[in-house]
Amino acid sequence: MLKFYYHQISINSRRVWIALLEKNIEFEGIELKLNGDQFEPSFLALNPFHHIPVLEDNGFSVIESFAILDYLEAKYPDNPLLPTDARSLGLVKMVQMVTLNELLTAMNPLIMKGMGFGEPEVKKLEESQQKVGKVLEFFAEKLGEQSYFIDDRLTLADIVAGTAIGVLPFLGFSLDSYSNLKAWCDRLMQRSSWQQTQATPEQLESFKAQMKTLMAKKVAE
């Protein structure tokens, strides 16, 4: 059976977790606490860069969430999350990479502030909001009035972008100006895979407290 190493709060983990559920793949979930357990020799043997998520398949470990998603598509073709025609595939990959390279990078100051890890400069927060807005405008145009990026079919574009955009309201960034994206997020939240992987407020607060403790300890050292 596949072993999936993850953390409940991790966006990178969640996109793989949702894909596993949507494709109805049987797996064993192994949650790391990220309190130092990611540096244990047993985990470093799977990923020497000590990051999650990791997928282990009969002794073969796959690191990096996008690589894991591609691996799952290739090995488990049922319930596909990638289209095959060139235009649709190009759109899905484009949304994935824009999420990774543009959106998540732009979100970093918002995440830092929202998680209580620090108070970024006002200028950096303003730049962050502007860059996020630019990405959302791009996605809103690509989505149009469709249920999902590729007509009425869920793909990795929705999973990758949705797991990132879905946290924006919790970071103080409203989606009200992007009505079709907001409706799309609501649609995703109605899916069982989203509900099963949604972190509770208690889990979020616990993670914040843990990270603050670890950060304070590092500063003291």
TrEMBL record:
GO BP annotations listed: glutathione metabolic process
InterPro entries, A to Z: Glutathione-S-Trfase_C-like (IPR010987), Glutathione-S-Trfase_C_sf (IPR036282), Glutathione_S-Trfase (IPR040079), Glutathione_S-Trfase_N (IPR004045), GST_C (IPR004046), Thioredoxin-like_sf (IPR036249)
Keyword field contains Cell membrane: no
Cell cycle among keywords: no
CDD domains noted in UniProt: GST_N_family (cd00570)
GO molecular function annotations of the record: glutathione transferase activity
PROSITE patterns xrefs: GST_CTER (PS50405), GST_NTER (PS50404)
Residue span, GST C-terminal domain: 85-215
Pfam family, one: GST_C
Extent of the signal sequence: none
Record-annotated GST N-terminal domain positions: 1-80
Superkingdom: Bacteria
Keyword annotations from UniProtKB, A to Z: Transferase
Subunit structure: Homodimer.
PANTHER family: GLUTATHIONE S TRANSFERASE D10, ISOFORM A-RELATED
Protein name according to UniProt: Glutathione S-transferase family protein
Organism for this UniProt entry: Oxynema aestuarii AP17
